[in-house]
Amino acid sequence: MLNYKRLSKVISHALRHEPEKYGIKLDSNGWAPIQTLIEGIKRQAPVFSAIEIEDITSAIQSSDKVRHEIKSGQIRATYGHSTKKKINKTIEMTGVPDHLFHGTSPDAWAIIKEEGLNPQSRQYVHMSNNAQVARKVGARKSKNPVVLQIDTILARKNSVQFSREKNGVWLSNAIPSFCIKEIAKN
Ligand code: HQG
What we know:
ADP-ribosylation fold
């Protein structure tokens, strides 16, 4: 039985970070033909040399988050990109929650307090519409994660643009520090 968690990581690597290694050229919205992805994975990851399209769909569906989507023979990563050419996102003009949440480490928070939130190695800042989820995201970085609350009304007044992804994930460009505060642990 294939390790779908591992396969999902390889798919994310190909579609978020290094598509060229897999012979893939993402379009401006991040889409690539599934067949090209399959051929690239077969070449790059010998352990997956016999994968078929059903394995790609199973890996995506068995994942704990909506990381990838499939449409008309194409596949894309929904968020997380670090490729040089920016993936287009649809700016939400309505329906942005008044507050979004970002989980991080105390060390990063000490800098964010001064500099604001930056995308760092990714194309966009990642946030959640849910503080508990943000705490889990921060737990990837620290045993004592900090949850930050973003005042999106103030941020939008200061030219920050938000886009909605699957499953409660939100993306934006850099957010100034005065729109961000720490929320108490509960
Ligand atoms: C921090 C996972 C210093 C920021 C998650 C974060 C997410 C700063 C780190 C998705 C900073 C970047 C993305 C500044 C931001 N100075 N540090 N000015 N501004 N930072 O991993 O948001 O499981 O690139 O706080 O669930 O942690 O992969 O971003 O700690 O949705 O699908 O710089 O990745 O999803 O770290 O995570 P990351 P993230 P998957």
